[in-house]
Write a structure and sequence with these properties.
There is one protein chain. With 501 residues, the chain is an alpha/beta fold. Helices cover 52% and strands 14% of the residues. It has helices at residues 2-5, 14-21, 51-64, 70-78, 114-119, 126-137, 177-186, 199-209, 227-236, 245-257, 272-277, 289-294, 306-341, 353-373, 385-412, 419-443, 452-470, 472-477, 485-500, and strands at 8-10, 24-27, 39-45, 86-90, 98-103, 107-112, 141-148, 162-170, 190-194, 217-219, 239-241, 262-266, 280-284, 297-299. The strands form two sheets. Strands 1-14-13-12-2-9-11-10 form an eight-stranded mixed beta sheet, with helices on both faces. The chain has a six-stranded antiparallel beta sheet with strand order 3-8-7-6-5-4. It is rod-shaped, with a radius of gyration of 34 Å. The two termini are 40 Å apart.
Length: 501
């Protein structure tokens, strides 16, 4: 419910714990670090023709294409045109990185990533490559329009294509992105930017938002295929460009092999493989239904700024769960010790069931309720939860058991009091030690300052117990008695020694 209030839908309960454990967050560039909407900033002819002729080719391509994506929509908006008869079409895919049409009377037009088209035979000379690199270095997304007379065959590029012009696309950096990256860095969460765009462009955007280590980028074409080589690249690289969906999944898999707890954000069908592979899949609320279907968390507002709040909420929940666990298990330990000693001895047991209810309610039931829902600070213990839990509850439980048994036996023995007074002393001692455990849990191993409301709760419950003993009807119901001054002195001395221990 609390996650939903900040715009985060947890589709799986274990996503809450995963939020607290995440140490690596993989991000897409478009829609996460930048605005989801792109626009054509400029077009540059490269074949000696005019800009009007280039816009005419772009307009007929965008108007004729049956398959639309954000790039084609941006081109259609910037260069309106009339559709032509389509003889063959190859729609865009994240694996190909290009799309094209063969039009009646106009030949073939292809729009795609310049480096991808160059590797497939489109002649991109050094001068054009330098222009593309300069634009990409400034954070622009660059696509190349190529054309030729030969038709497309299947899903292969037509032969004889030549460059016609460059299309410069601009994506505004999200206003909240730099602050979000800075928060994640302070919290020890490493960020990795994985995108299908040009590595130089992705690197420029990553540097602009302050991603640590974004100075170098690797292209998908340069990624090794063997696991050992990929592990080595992943250990040193932060920014990845021209990545296919399969490579995205392999990158997440390699990070996990390296001991990282990986979260992946995505919004499209091409992100599904990586979302499923990550320990925590996070989908945008405006993403595809398939991406949202496999994700563990959905950011309903589609805002990257929700991630830090969700991470902190997950950490708060886990911190509080660990603290509450200490209360319950410490009580289990001292109950077991008392049962294994006095429970086996030929002496009346120091508690009646109704008396145990008093101590449990005041030291575990009600405090656990407030501690579970309260704000919290401090580190999240991701590793070795059971050993760290036992390191606290075993000594705390043993000391509490010794304190309770000492108070009970001293009242029954040296003071020669009756069973009711002995049990009353045991209830007082167990409640006092239980409240001391609450304070110790609040302080934690770091020795944090105890919040005022916790002191107030402890003092109120201690006063409530003392007041309850003064009321005859309540005292009779719980089979307790009004302690004498000697009994109070014994209980106080035992509690002082137990709390100090």
């Amino acid at each position: 419910v609390r996650l939903a209030r900040i715009g985060t839908l947890a589709q799986r309960l274990n996503a809450v714990e995963s939020l607290a454990s995440v140490d690596t967050l993989c991000l897409d560039k478009t829609g996460t670090l930048t605005e989801n909407r792109i626009a054509v900033e400029a077009v540059e002819p490269v074949d000696g023709r005019s800009e009007e002729a280039l816009r005419a080719d772009l307009g007929v391509l965008a108007a004729s294409a049956g398959a639309r994506n954000s790039t084609m929509n941006a081109v259609a908006e910037a260069a309106p045109g009339e559709p032509a008869q389509v003889l063959h079409e190859v729609p865009f895919s994240s694996a190909r990185k290009w799309s094209g049409v063969t039009l009646a009377g106009r030949g073939t037009l292809v729009l795609g990533a310049p480096d991808v088209l160059a590797r497939r035979g489109v002649p991109v000379d050094d001068a054009l490559r330098a222009r593309v690199g300069a634009h990409a270095a400034s954070g622009k997304r660059v696509v190349l329009l190529a054309g030729g007379p030969e038709p497309l065959a299947g899903e292969e590029l037509a032969p004889g294509l030549v460059p016609l012009g460059l299309v410069l696309l601009a994506e505004a950096i999200r206003e909240e992105a730099p602050a979000t990256i800075a928060y994640l860095t302070r919290e020890g969460v490493a960020t990795r930017v994985i995108s299908g765009d040009d590595p130089v462009t992705v690197r420029a955007v990553a540097e602009a938002v302050g991603v640590p280590g974004a100075g170098t980028a690797v292209s998908g074409a340069d990624l090794p295929s063997d696991p050992e080589g990929l592990d080595a690249v992943v250990a040193e690289t932060v920014v990845y460009g021209r990545i296919t969906p399969e490579q995205n999944r392999e990158l997440v898999r390699a990070m996990t092999r390296g001991g990282r707890y990986v979260a992946m954000t995505g919004d499209g069908v091409n992100d599904v493989l990586a979302l499923k592979e990550a320990r925590l899949g996070i989908a945008m609320g405006n993403g595809s239904q398939m991406a949202k279907g496999v994700a563990d968390l959905i950011l309903l507002t589609s805002s990257f700024a929700t991630v830090p709040r969700a991470v902190e909420e997950g950490r708060r929940i886990i911190r509080n769960t660990h603290r509450v666990a200490k209360l319950f298990v410490a009580k289990t330990v001292y109950s077991a010790v008392i049962l294994a000693t006095l429970g086996m001895a030929p002496i009346a047991y120091p508690f009646l069931p109704r008396q145990i209810t008093v101590a449990s309610t005041l030291t575990i039931g009600v405090p656990a309720f407030f501690l579970a829902l309260a704000p919290s600070e401090g580190p999240v213990r991701r590793e070795r939860f059971i050993p760290s839990l036992l390191a606290f509850v075993v000594p705390a439980g043993i000391v509490s058991a010794i304190t309770i048994m000492a108070a009970y036996l001293l009242v029954r023995g040296p003071l020669d009091a009756g069973i009711d007074e002995g049990r009353t002393a045991a209830v007082l001692a167990s409640t006092g030690m239980g409240l001391a455990i609450v304070v110790a849990v609040e302080r934690g191993p770091e020795g944090r300052r105890v919040r005022p409301w916790v002191w107030g709760m402890v003092a109120a419950f201690a006063a409530l117990l003392v007041l309850g003993i003064q009321l005859p009807w309540l005292r009779d119901f719980f089979a307790a008695v009004q302690p004498s001054a000697d009994v109070w002195a014994v209980v106080a001395a035992c509690l002082a020694a137990g709390i100090a221990a």
